[in-house]
Design goal:
This protein is an alpha/beta fold. 40% of the residues lie in helices and 17% in strands. It has 2 domains: 163 residues, 2-Layer Sandwich (Ribosomal Protein S5, domain 2), CATH 3.30.230.10; 304 residues, Rossmann fold (3-Layer(aba) Sandwich), CATH 3.40.50. Strands 11-14-17-10-18 form a 5-stranded parallel β-sheet. A 4-stranded mixed β-sheet has the order 1-2-4-3. A 3-stranded parallel β-sheet has the order 5-8-9, covered by helices on one side. The radius of gyration is 27 Å and the shape is elongated. The protein starts with a strand and ends in a 5-residue tail after the last helix.
Length: 494
């Protein structure tokens, strides 16, 4: 007696189709799973046997062979428990085949027969939509099906419900209502008009920003307010980012509500933690910041190898990992916000406290970032400690809501005129978008020669100038826009 149940396994952020084939035949009692299962999947034999008995079904006292096809694809996780159990029930005629026909099944089983969620439910829902099939699994799968759209779902709380229900959709257990996500207000930041302007430009065009200043100057406060001035995620961006969170086992509800991600890993973060990796391969912090902000506080303290791993994703918007299991591609289009002290003691260039570091010490400290990564920063701004009177003053700066309105207007202007943000333009498309006149072209050439700007540096200066023009709804980049862009790129930081 044989039966086949359709399921999937995670490969990066995509769910790959897998057939669970069960064969029940005469012979000595045994339960074997083949098809490159991992350790957690091998352990499902005991979970499935106990869950079937607890749910009132009979586990066959003969030879049971389960094959996971295709056999060359490595299978991961506990989500195969429910498909294996249903395949055994179907093969032993305890479950009609019609109940699981045209259905993608996923779920972990408890020893009492309860059905539990697994990582990547949204990926399974998208796979079912791609296959034109329905879903069967834990109650949490219903929320993933709603997010994917166009997918019918039959949620189960217990294994015994598979034969008890008559084809209708049981009542769903919904998560309790949550209070709206509150973001820090930019009005809380005292002073810092230059840094606030740089933050607005970075948000409007998706530019990378480096803030340099002594301890306590407000660099972290500014970075934490970046998500608040960004527009909400679009429907496509929500699905892309929520998918990364789902396969990572993180709560994606905030993302589905439109809140852009803000990731701030500690400087002890490894390359695998930043880029992605592990076994099975999972996304790193760069991918978790997709369509949002990646904040690296005290960037010189990160391992140089981890920092250099940022270079490719910052240009391409994706992370490609090649492992023995194959090639994994994760989305990683983020806005990088970094902060650092100007020297090891933190007070180089400070107007009030003297610096105790020598010139070579400061040079070694700054060199930890590396020229190639520094060249990819669109905006570099010095953030000095504010005057005490500004901190205790009653009048605060512009609130987040007002800045967000200008950012949204600038992005709408960019999409209406060019179809994308200026940070994604290059080559002839960038020059056409800027429409530089003779004076602006000559200014850029002179600045590039005097300050030894690379080709990438010139391109990023033009992108920033185009964003400044978008904030003013200007059709072309003027010398004024270019001067402001160059002032941020060539600013003295110590």
């Amino acid at each position: 007696m044989q039966a086949t149940v359709m399921t999937a396994t995670l490969h990066g952020v995509e769910a790959m189709p897998v057939e669970v084939q069960a064969d029940v035949a005469n012979g000595l009692p045994s339960f074997t799973i083949v098809g490159l299962p991992d350790a957690a999947l091998q352990e499902s034999r005991d979970r499935v046997r106990s869950a079937l008995r607890a749910a009132g079904y009979e586990f066959p006292s003969c030879r049971v062979l389960v094959n996971l096809a295709p056999a060359l694809l490595r299978k991961h996780g506990t989500g195969f428990d429910l498909p294996i159990a249903l395949a055994v029930l179907t093969a032993t005629r305890q479950l009609p085949e019609e109940r699981i026909e045209g259905t993608v099944v996923v779920g972990e089983l408890g020893l009492d027969g309860s059905v539990r969620p697994v990582h990547g439910l949204l990926a399974f829902a998208l796979a079912a939509r791609r296959f034109g099939m329905s879903l069967l699994g834990p109650h949490e799968l219903a929320d993933a099906a709603d997010a994917a759209g166009g997918v019918s779902c039959r949620p189960l709380a217990h294994l015994r419900e598979i034969t008890a229900e008559a084809g209708g959709r049981p009542p769903q257990k919904r998560a309790p209502a949550r209070s709206p996500v509150r973001v820090p207000d930019l009005a809380d930041v005292a002073g810092q008009p230059t840094a606030r302007r740089a933050l607005e430009i970075a948000a409007a065009g998706g530019h990378n920003l480096l803030m340099v200043g002594p301890p306590g100057s407000g660099k972290t406060m500014l970075a934490q307010r970046m998500p608040g001035i960004l527009p909400p995620l679009t429907s496509d961006e929500r699905l892309e980012t929520a998918l990364v969170y789902s396969v990572s086992g993180l709560d994606e509800r905030t993302i589905l509500e439109g809140v852009r991600p803000f990731r701030s890993p500690h400087h002890s973060c490894s390359i695998a933690g930043l880029v992605g990796g592990g076994s099975p391969v999972r996304p790193g912090e760069m991918s978790l910041a997709h369509n949002g902000v990646l904040y690296l506080d005290e960037i010189p303290q990160f391992a140089p190898s981890a920092l250099q791993a940022l270079r490719g994703p910052m240009e391409e918007g994706t992370v490609a990992l090649v492992r023995a299991e194959g090639r994994f591609v994760f989305p990683a289009r983020f806005t990088l916000i970094a902060s650092m002290n100007p020297c090891p003691c933190g007070f180089a260039g400070d107007r009030q406290r003297p610096c105790s570091c020598t010139g070579p010490t400061i040079a070694r400290y700054m060199a930890r970032i590396g020229g190639p990564l520094f060249d990819r920063m669109d905006l570099v701004v010095r953030v000095d400690r504010p005057d005490p009177s500004a901190i205790v003053a009653i009048d605060r700066g512009e609130p987040t809501a007002e800045v967000r309105e200008r950012v949204i207007a600038a992005r709408q202007h960019a999409h209406a005129t060019r179809g994308c943000l200026s940070s994604r333009l290059s080559g002839a498309a960038l020059l056409d978008a800027c429409q530089l006149d003779h004076g602006a072209s000559r200014l850029l050439e002179q600045a590039a020669r005097v300050h030894h700007l690379s080709g990438r540096g010139i391109t990023r200066a033009l992108r920033t100038a185009r964003t400044i023009a978008d904030l003013q709804a200007a059709e072309r980049v003027s010398e004024e826009h270019l001067l402001e862009a160059l002032s941020f790129r060539l600013q003295e930081t110590a």
